[in-house]
Structures are given as structure tokens and as C-alpha cells.
Amino acid sequence: MNLSFNPDTLALPIHHLIGDRRVPAKGVIGMRRPSDGKSYADCPQASADLVDEAVATAKAALKTSNWGGVRPRERINVMHRWADLIEQEAVTLAKLEAIASTRPVGELVAGDVAITAEQIRFFAEFADKEGSDLVPTDDGNLGMTMSEPYGVVGAITPWNVPLSMAGWKLGPALAAGNAVVLKPSEMTPFSTLFMAELALKAGVPAGLINIVLGDGPVTGNAITGHPDIAKVSFTGSTGAGSAIMANIAATGIKPMTLELGGKSPQLVFADADLNKAAAAIARSILANAGQACVAGSRLIVEEGVAQDLCNAIVTEMKKVKAGPTWDEASRYSPIISERQRDRIDTIVKAAVAAGGTCVYGGAPMEGDGYFYTPTLITDVDNASPAITDEIFGPVLSVQTFRTEEEALSLADHPTYGLAAGLFTRDLSRAIRMTRALQAGTIWVNRYSRSRDHILPTGGYKQSGIGKDLGREAYLANRKTKSVLINL
User: Fold this and answer.
1) CATH number of the domain located at residue range(s) 265-452 in this protein
2) Residue 27 pLDDT more than 90?
3) CA 83 → CA 35, 127, 213, 453, distances in Å?
4) Sorting pLDDT into bands at 50, 70 and 90, what band is 465?
5) φ, ψ for residue 442 (rounded to 5)?
6) Is 36 helix (H, G, I), strand (E, B) or coil?
7) Is 338 designated active site?
8) Whole-angstrom Cα distance, residue 315 to residue 319?
């Protein structure tokens, strides 16, 4: 199967989806393809009135379909059909995602699309396995906790892995019996729209999924501050998460799940398998050109093996070859926008000006598109921008240590605590360090998620509130009440 395609001939769904209606709108947000910088479309902006319409449609759909009250197995069956359609339409979804995003089409069919279908099936199966509980009381009473859907959930997804992030939001919310009003990133809306239309074909009642396009200040604020949105789920930057919290506080208290930024450390001890460590670390910063909240952007390595490890990582960095996301052979991603590429370059130059040594990279790539050379910076201290800032690009900083205590001190970031990696053959050390590291996810002798969707993800500190994936994500879309019956 040849997945390469001509981006100029791909038909794009540029509309809102409210109920089963494609709502046309004039584009107001200019869109440029990251791979070549070409202006190719305009994204419409949903007003507060249109968000009102979407929320009202969601509320009505919950009532007419009784989605939260039907036999749970009915919800499960519909969601399994939806996952089947996602797999069947994998090529179309991959192309719609590749044209707008940083994800190469050759990685999408077997990667992002297949994983999204798995996630939908995974969350669906909670519908008839998690519920209310009887609790111990005295013989004169019957106590229980009852679980029920929130109602309408508002969701906002980022641009870096659009399809998978939509699965993170829609899967647990729908399985738990809710309706959703979702805003994808204004830079990468197309695959999410098509995925939602597949849900309609699978039998998800019209109105349970509503997709409104637009930016954060207008459309996003209308969602998070809407009085009939019962719960909010967001994945994105810590700054945007703070703004969402402020908007919710100003317009009415409601629960929220926030998966936010990271500046994740990778600790390597001298007893580690350095070849495996180098390969894992290189993948973690080169995948999607470092544009991931869990990117392992801080290498903290025992002094005696630092040079050998850095040499091995640079060898991997030198292998990358930039190519457009619509070319099946491409394996290295562009930066999402010219503005973000320039921001990366500004931080790298500031880190060097502050005393850092750029061992490799440190500049935009020549040619079309917003590509940035993989970069490794040594000789940085904790005040360096390479350490303090979430760069969101293919930039790896290096610090060295001599003792476990020093390693933990360097790993402990004042702002972020999303993920951490640890490479050692010493089991006792691995357990000690895992207990001590301040992060929501710890990977030992690897640095990546698996397809075990039961493992939740979420951060400490300013890296977020609550969890995505796992049982926790399903339960976060249900509210509980306590009941005590006098017998």
C-alpha cells in the first residue's frame, strides 16, 4: 500500500459538526502546512452562540437517546462498531492528519490510528464493569455509592497528536454515558471531524459528539465557561491550562482534567545498558521532533559514561532525514509552525549565550517547511533556558551527576512533574529512585508509553490535574452520590 499523496488534491472537511449537521462557516484562522509552509486553508471560528447551540444539541441528544441509561452493553457495541470503522478508514484518517499536523503519514496507519481504535474499545469495556457499590453499615441501614454520568463534557485537544488525543477525550466520556462538545486545535482539526462522522455511521446517536472549530480565547473560553458544561477535559500547555482554570473559576466551579506541560528527566546510571539507553533517549526526543508533553528533554547521566552516551545519541540524531508528512518515507517531523520553530531557536541560542555548549544541531534546517535540526546541549545549569523552559522541540539538554542524591536533585524540576525515565540494571536502585522521583509516570529501562491503555497518565506539580487513560479516565467521567437507606 502506497500512502504517499498529493496534498493539493486532498478534500478537507472544513465545517463544524453539530448533531448530524455539517455547519458551514467562513474561515477566519489562516492555516499553513508545517511541511512546506504553504497557506492552504482557513479554519472557521465558532462563536459563543454556536457553542451554545452545540451544548443545547448535546443536552437534547442525551435526553432523547437515553444514552446514559441504556443497557451498558448497547453503548459498548456501538463503540466497538465505531472502532471498526476507524480501522477501516485508517488511510483517509492518516491523510487528513498528515496534511495539517506534524505526524508523518507512514507512521499513522499502524500507529496513531490503530491506537485510537484500541483506546475506543478499551474505554467501551468499562461501561458494564464499573458501577455502584454497596458499602458496610450497621444492620439497620443500607449504604451505597451510586455512579452516574456528568451530562455534557467539554473537551479541548492539542495539535501534536490530534487523533489520539480525541480518542483520550471521546472514548471515556461516551463509554461513561456522557455527550461531548469538543474543540480540536485550530491547526489540526480535520482527522477529528472525520472521526466524529464515523461515530455517527457506527450508530452513536446524533448530538452526543459535537465538534466546534476555533481558537482558545474565543471558542475554548465559550466551552470551558459554559454553564451547561458539567466537566472539562483539556490537554495542552501549562499556560493554557492556567487560563482554563481561571475561566472556570470565574464562570462557575466544575471538575476538570488537565494534562499539561512537562520537562521530563531521563536518568542514566553507569551500570545501564548504554546502547539501549541511547536508542530510547534518541527516540524520545526525535519522535514528532520532540513535540510531545512527555518528551524526555533533560538527560541526567552519571559522569563517567556521559561522553560515550552523548556520542551515541548524536549518532542517532545524524540519521534523521526531513521530508514532508505526506511522503510515506518520511520519519522526521516538521515543527508545527514558523512561530514555534523560531521560539525553539531563540531558546537554544539563549541557552548557548548562558554558557551551554551546542554539541550538535542548534539551527533550523534549510529548505521548505518548519524543520529544526536535532540538537544536543551540554554544560548547562539549572538556570539555563534549556532546563527551565518546555521547548517542545528536538532539543536535549545534558547534565551530569556523581551520586543518587545529586541525580534526584537535578531531576526535581520546580515547575513540571509529568514523566521521568530511569536506566539502571540495579533493581534496588530502580525501586528507590522510582519512589523518590516526582513525576506522574516513571519508565524504567525504556522511555515511551506502551499500548497497555490501563496505565493512566497525568502529572505532578504544574503538569496537570487528574488522569487520562486507565480506569481513572473512565471514572473521571462519572460522578458519585452517597445513599443511606434506613431499614
Assistant:
1) 3.40.309.10
2) no
3) 29, 15, 23, 15
4) very high
5) -120, 125
6) coil
7) no
8) 7
Whole-structure pTM value: 0.96
26 — pLDDT class (breaks 50, 70, 90)? confident
Q: Can you spell out the DSSP letters for 379-446?
A: S--TTSHHHHS---SSEEEEEEESSHHHHHHHH--SSEESEEEEE-S-HHHHHHHHHH---SEEEES-
Beta bridge partners of 465: 258
Beta strand ranges found along 124-239 (DSSP E): 133-135, 141-149, 152-156, 179-183, 209-211, 231-235
Residue from 53, 186, 293, 302 carrying the catalytic annotation: 293
Architecture per CATH, 7-260+464-486 = 3-Layer(aba) Sandwich (3.40)
What are 55's strand-pairing partners? none
Q: Judge contact between 29 and 197, C-beta under 8 A.
A: no
Average pLDDT, rounded, for the chain: 97
> Pseudo-torsion of CA 229, 235, 240, 243, nearest 10°?
30
Given a cut of 90, is residue 365 above it in pLDDT? yes
Which residue reads 515547575 in cell numbers? 415
Question: Residue 417: which of 392, 435, 396, 442 has the closest Cα?
Answer: 442
Query: In 3D, which of 298, 342, 290, 339 has the Cα closest to residue 317?
Result: 290
Q: Which residues contact 138 (CB under 8 A, 6 or more apart)?
A: none
Q: Catalytic site residue 43? A: no
Catalytic annotation, pick one of 186, 197, 259, 328:
259
Taking residues 380-400, report their average pLDDT: 97
Domain ranges of the chain: 7-260+464-486, 265-452
Check whether 1 has a pLDDT greater than 80.
Answer: no
- Report pLDDT for 303: 97
